Structure formats: C-alpha cells, structure tokens
Amino acid sequence: MDLTNEPAPGFTLPRDGDGTVTLSEIDGPVILYFYPRDDTSGCTAEALDFTARAAEFEAAGATILGISKDSVAQHDKFRDKHGLGIALLSDAAGDVCERYGVWVEKKMYGKTHMGIERSTFLVDGSGRVEREWRKVKVPGHVEEVLEAVKAL
Length: 152
Hints:
The chain contains five helices and nine strands. By secondary structure, the chain is of the alpha/beta class. It has one domain: Glutaredoxin (3-Layer(aba) Sandwich).
C-alpha cells in the first residue's frame, strides 16, 4: 500500500497524559511514526531520537506523533521512564494501523505473527501524505525525516 500523494487517513486517538489528538485539527506538517511496542530497544531508540530533535521539528512547524497499539497507561510509563517529549497515541483497536497499512504479517525466529511494521508518514499542511518510509531502520531515520520536513 502506497499512500504517497493521497489524503492521509483521518483519526482521533487517545494520547499519553490524557486527552485525544485529531489529525485534521493539527496545523502544519505532521510526522506520524508507527512503532511496534513501548520500551523495546528499537522503539526506545526511535522515540529518544525524535525527542532529541523535537525542537528542530517544532521550528519547522511540524508535529510529531508516535502511534502503537499500547495502552495510554503503557505510553505514560514509557514516556516517564525515558523522559520522552513527543505525543504517544494509542491505537489499541488497530484501526489506524490497518488504514495506514502498517499492520502486517511479520516473521521472527521462523514463526509468523501479525505486528506493526515500523513506518513513518510525513503529512503536509493540507492533509496529504507527502512521503512515507516503510520497514524503517532506526539509525539515521529521524535526520532523514527532518530533512524532508525542512524541504516542504
């Protein structure tokens, strides 16, 4: 599934710290990054990288939203444990993951299971998917996304 140049699927999801986030209510570019699970090594590294560069994304007018199927309570623990400074949204039902095509069949140790494919979407200020990254490798990824935001 390629969403590039398509309208970003809309959503309202609960977030860490209470409240909800509605995609269509955010002004400016949005970085939606989908990750498999709170407090695992790759997901922690990615969240820390986005947090470290959050001021640069904000200066470029962009909002960062991390999305997984973890609960809001799990997000709160993850945020507090690692001092994260980005919004973490809970897609517990997996509906948003399905609409973005990131809920996929994965293989680990020879076994097949369903899970979130680490993916990032850059949604421009008009609500269109400007760019997407699938099967993301964490090292260097946040810098690449930041460059794409700055190029808008």
